[in-house]
Amino acid sequence: MWSNISAAPFLLTGFPGLEAAHHWISIPFFAIYISVLLGNGTLLYLIKDDHNLHEPMYYFLAMLAGTDLTVTLTTMPTVMAVLWVNHREIRHGACFLQAYIIHSLSIVESGVLLAMSYDRFVAICTPLHYNSILTNSRVIAIGLGVLLRGFLSLVPPILPLFWFSYCRSHVLSHAFCLHQDVMKLACADITFNRIYPVVLVALTFFLDALIIVFSYVLILKTVMGIASGEERKKSLNTCVSHISCVLVFYITVIGLTFIHRFGKHAPHVVHITMSYVYFLFPPFMNPIIYSIKTKQIQRSVLRLLSV
């Protein structure tokens, strides 16, 4: 009996109790998804096409845009299928793969933001050595390191999902697959799958955030030592976009964590909404932040529009 239940596909969930309004809810979701695709796709095109943007800072920005684009393309098909045509079934393999990509890219995004803070630290604290430190080969090595950390660190908790038995309810709580949702449905010892993510979050998100804060303490110390007020302002302005993206990312992470830990009595729809905010708000905001705050990006956008 268990094997038959275990083989049954998982069922994704939209907004419980609001199924009749799914078509209306799909309109802002679709608009945001299209905005994310256009915004990040445009950033990638500009960085590839404009030789003035062939610098380490923009290479890391391209990695950020690529990460946001991929996570959006990963969640969009199942979310829109649930909202548009109520297609809820997802096979185990597809579900585990989706969860693997989503969680891996979250760690990649944190790593890219850390790499960007290193770029700003080198640019402001050792400007004369910037080009010799952040060479193309070093930028590639950092990028590969960030990708490998993200994708290899998620293999241990995702692999056991393939051999767990699933004899409980097959209903997931979102319109996409998450590791914490799937493991709760397993009829097996999930102790490792409970502990590992906590350790992983501490060694990635938490540690990355600490290093970013420390790097900005050193940057501020260097900037405050600059005699000219105009030069101080110019140096800090180069960090505004990155700081804004860091705040957007980590505030949504903290918000989601707090809702899961302390919002047990909050309506289920609040938990679901916070999850969507976490996956959609940073990819939506990052291109806007860089387009508004970075003059080189503004010039490239204007050049593209004037063609």
TrEMBL record:
It comes from the Eukaryota. GO terms for biological process: cellular response to lipid; G protein-coupled receptor signaling pathway; sensory perception of smell. Residues 39-290 form the G-protein coupled receptors family 1 profile domain. The chain crosses the membrane at residues 30-47, 59-85, 97-118, 139-163, 195-219, 240-263, 269-290. GO terms for molecular function: G protein-coupled receptor activity; olfactory receptor activity. Gene3D superfamilies: Rhodopsin 7-helix transmembrane proteins (1.20.1070.10). It is found in: Cell membrane; Membrane. SUPFAM superfamilies: Family A G protein-coupled receptor-like. GO terms for cellular component: membrane; plasma membrane. It is a multi-pass membrane protein. Its main location: membrane. Keywords: Cell membrane, G-protein coupled receptor, Membrane, Olfaction, Receptor, Sensory transduction, Transducer, Transmembrane, Transmembrane helix. Belongs to the G-protein coupled receptor 1 family. This is Olfactory receptor.
